[in-house]
Structures are given as structure tokens and as C-alpha cells.
Design brief:
This protein is of the alpha+beta class and 317 residues long. It has eight helices and 21 strands. The chain has three domains: 81 residues, Uridine Diphospho-n-acetylenolpyruvylglucosamine Reductase, domain 2, CATH 3.30.43; 110 residues, Uridine Diphospho-n-acetylenolpyruvylglucosamine Reductase, domain 3; 102 residues, Uridine Diphospho-n-acetylenolpyruvylglucosamine Reductase, domain 1 (Alpha-Beta Complex).
Amino acid sequence: MVLPLAEEIAAVPGLCVSENVPLRSLTRFGIGGPARLLVDASSEQALAAAVAILHKAGLPLALIGGGTNLLASDDGFPGAVLRYTANRIDVHGVTLAVQAGAFLQQVVDSSIQRGLKGLETMTGIPGWVGGAIYGNAGAYGRSIGESVAWVRFFDGVNFREINNIQCEFRYRESVFKSHKDWIVVAAGLRLNPADSDELKSAAGEILKIRNRKYPPQMRCAGSIFKNLLLSDLPASLRPTIPKEVIREGKVPSAYFLELVGAKGMTADSIRVADYHANLIYNSGAGTARTVKEMIETLRLRVQQSYGLVLEEELQYL
């Protein structure tokens, strides 16, 4: 039986609603119980209407993007999971105006085709633009926040625009992580002219490395823990870090995880890759509970051995 609330949502142009959707089908981990409602909004007007209806109904609301960096509860979600799916990409000189539902890879490809430099290092990173901005995604020494000129978002009442400084981008952080009810709907990415063939070649090499490290078919969320800023490490620990380990002023969490024996750890269907200590994946019918237990075990080992508290890149639903 279709719920009256679902009928009300479905009647709004630009909204698509489904009931009892398994979250494992929406996440790269392939884990998660059912969401009572999944609501996709394809326009700003539809998004605002969906939020108003759901708030009026008093239903719990969770915002997600492509689900590539998300661990969903085995119990599912008792309310509505909302996604903004508008995915247009417009080119204005050296700036790409991109809607939040666009696949990040499509944006990267568009920039390369047009000879615009700044996003090529992010080739192969799965997910949507909105999530990439939320988490300031990046790779190989560059993050998306460095290219952001402006971000448009919905604060629950109004649509607003803020500039790069107001986004408060830091390593894997942004102002949107402090305001989880703000919904990114679009962004302007300001890039630099470059040779398209050179960008394509560089991206191709990066993609080969990434696919070896994170095979597209692997059910994982990429690296689980954030890397550590060398400057934030205790002064007594810094001299012990081999120079070849340090990259762009950061020490990979995988370095410490490997030292505490993380590689190859297994709990039911949840495993740590035997070639990468910061990669946890689902090899079968894994559960969110087992993933969280694995994460806590690894965090505790590093804390007890080195006095460091690792912080997840992974987000939870």
C-alpha cells in the first residue's frame, strides 16, 4: 500500500519517491537496511517542496549523494533519504557551472576535453559533485575546494550562494560538514587553460593507479581514515617517520595502520586489503556493525601504539 505521504510527494513535479528502498543498493559498500522513503529531487523547486513536506510530516530526513563514501545502518533509516539529482554541466570560459547531482567523473572528463586544468587528478574518484564538495574530495595533492569559486545551496528556507573563503575548505573538510542540513545544489569550478592531450595523458596514468588500488567492482568506500598532517603529529614522533612516506606534508594513515598489523585483517565478510592497510571492503554479505567494529579495533591499535586518534573520511547513515 502506498503511504499518503508518498502520494503527496509524488504529486510534486520533479520529485520521485520510492518506499522501503534497501540502502545497500545506494551505497558502494553494498551494506544497509531499508529506508522508509527515498526521495529524488531533480530541480531546486522540487527540492524545496520535498524538504517542506517532510518537515511538516515530522519525518526524519537524511541527505546523501552518490553513496560512495557512506556506511548505512543494518537497520536502515526510519525516515526519508533525500537526494538532489540535477546534473547539468555548463561551461563559461574557464569556469564550469555544475549541478550537485552530476557524476564527478563526468565533470573531470568535461574539463579535460575542454583543456581546463585543475580536476584531472580526481579522475576515477566515484560519486557526485555535491558529495565531493561536502567532503572536499581530492587526490594526488589537490582537492576540489581549490577550484571552487562559489557554491549554491539550500539552507532549508532559502537558496544562497557563498564564495570559496566562506566554504571554509580544509583537508577533507568544509562548512557543509558543520551544517549537515545545508544542501549543495550547484558550484562554480574555476580552472586554468592547459593542453587537453597532456591532461588526458596525466589522468590516464592516475586512473591506472587508482583502479589497481580501488578496483571499480570492489565494494568499499575508498580510504577509511583521513591522512595525518605532519605538523599535527607530536614533535617526538615526527623524526621517526621515513621521509619517503611523507606526501605533500601528510603522513598516510596506512603507514601507522600497517605497523599495527591491519593488512589482511578479516571479520566475517569484512576485510582489510592485504596490499593497503587503510582499505576496508565488503567481500560478501558484510554488515555495518562489523565494519564499525573493525574501524574501532584499528583506531584503538593506533592510539595505543602511537597516541594518535585516527578520524574517518567515511560518513555514517
